[in-house]
Amino acid sequence: MTKKVNKNYELSISVVDGLAVDSQALQPFLDLRTGLQTLFPNNKIIFKLVVDNLDNVVKTIE
């Protein structure tokens, strides 16, 4: 799910439980966010990694 809040884009991405503490598994999300931030320099890109439902945010990457 993508949500625009002011100038920020918040992307909720469903992940498996435990991914938030696995630095190797997180790296592709960090790289993707960095790439998107380069494409949209005037907007803050925020990834919310969720497990099971959108309310269960296990990690936020800004």
In terms of topology, how is this protein built?
Elements: E1 2-5, E2 8-14, H1 23-39, E3 44-50, E4 57-61
Parallel strand pairs: 2-3
Antiparallel strand pairs: 1-2, 3-4
N-to-C span: 16 Å
Strand order of the largest sheet: 1-2-3-4
Share of β-strand residues? 35-45%
| Approximate helicity band | 25-40%
**Helix-strand pattern, N to C?**
EEHEE
The count of DSSP E runs of length 2 or more, i.e. the number of strands, is 4
Main sheet makeup: 4 strands, mixed
Describe the protein in words:
The protein is of the alpha+beta class and 62 residues long. The chain is 27% helix and 37% strand. The protein is built from 1 helix and 4 strands; from the N terminus they run ββαββ. Strands 1-2-3-4 form a 4-stranded mixed sheet, with helices on one face. The radius of gyration is 12 Å and the shape is flat. The model has no long low-confidence stretch (mean pLDDT 96).
List keywords for this structure.
single chain; alpha+beta; 4 strands; 1 helix; 62 residues; 4-stranded mixed β-sheet
Task: Describe the structure concisely.
With 62 residues, the chain is of the alpha+beta class. 27% of the residues lie in helices and 37% in strands.
